[in-house]
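[job 0412] stage=complex_fold ligand=(2Z)-2-iminopentanedioic acid status=START
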Amino acid sequence: MKVQTIMADLERKHPGESEYLQAVQEVLESIEEVYNQHPEFEKAKIVERMVEPDRIFTFRVTWVDDNGEIQTNLGYRIQFNSAIGPYKGGIRFHKAVNPSMLKFLGFEQTFKNALTTLPMGGAKGGSDFDPVGKSDAEIMRFCQAFMWELWNNIGPDTDVPAGDVGVGGREIGYMYGMYKKLAREYNTGVLTGKGMTWGGSLIRPEATGFGALYFVEHMLAKAGKSIKGATVAISGFGNVAWGAATKATELGATVIAISGPDGVVYNPNGMNQQKLDYMLELRASNRNIVAPFAEKFTDATFIPGKKAWSIKCDIALPCAFQNELNGDDAAELLANGTWCAAEVSNMGCTPEAIATFQNAGILFAPGKAVNAGGVATSGLEMTQNAMHLSWSAAEVDSKLHYIMESIHAACVKYGTQPDGYINYVKGANIAGFMKVAQAMLEQGIV
Ligand code: 2IT
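[job 0412] stage=complex_fold status=DONE, emitting structure tokens
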């Protein structure tokens, strides 16, 4: 395999799909050497097949807003790869959603899910629907209209959607309600991230952030460091940021920044329960601004127009969106003494940022390893649904601990370089790839 040849072919077929091409390029560069040691993969054209989604559903979603106006959005579900299990991955509602974004996310999801140790293939879906400023009734009508198109293509053993940016427990509830009505199927396992009274799993809301911090703990332990007493800057203030802030605080770190599209909140005294609870309120308000946090808590300061990466910190945790931390941000963090960065958002760092961190020799880990606890706990939710029972929070949390530990171990196994530096990007990509590639090979030319 020649990465350039495959990328040139992909660029020709999918011109301008920058996020998708970026995600594929990163994986191909990581696996090139290992791949070329496996002529059987080359012969079966594993890479050429793996970089294209199995299929894409594109549909029109029409709904009526509170003013009685008719609105039309675009909806998608990308079933990327089913080599290791039924399609699995979140749904994103954001005004910038397009096929490139969802293909990058579906591609990442395939490898991430392979890392979880659970049998789940990769998928992603979403819409360019913008939840900002929408009423609860509008959100409900949109979710219902979205499911009206999607229901026939999903199922507990076919494709299991969940939340992502702009889709949380509320949206999953509205989609699940409509799914049952249309499908006349009452299997709770068709969606994950459900409410606790109707098949949801304890710890699923926290799992992405908690799992990320468990991963970071392992990464720090391996490097002889501890999170206790460290300062942590977090971008975003939604569900993932909340889980990460909660666990970082519990582990003795000071979360000194959270941020939104409007700017950053400098929070020198760290979080407490009231502040953490308020993050959830802020997200549910649908205003997509973080400034009110500093109005409510006077020991915090809002700095408009600035990113979380302008705040001096030991550990940087992007928890919001792809490419939210660029090369300049990485340089600023390094100049301020940051010694660890872990992507909690999918592809939170640009390639320049990753290169900057790795060249400086600081600890860096990619989203598909760090944030895999979210989808892993979705997998545990599916297991509980299939068994028609629910586990205690302690049981789910202990399984999440085990999964994050094994993902860390896989990264170390495949990512340790001759000089001892652990390249977690390479480790995660090779570990995920080897599993998916082996499964594809054994299943023949399909
Ligand atoms: O990016 C992700 O892993 C998610 N949005 C969660 C997907 C899931 O199926 O729980």
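Residues 88-90, 109, 112, 162, 164, 192, 346, 374-375, 378 surround (2Z)-2-iminopentanedioic acid (CB under 6 Å).
[job 0412] exit 0
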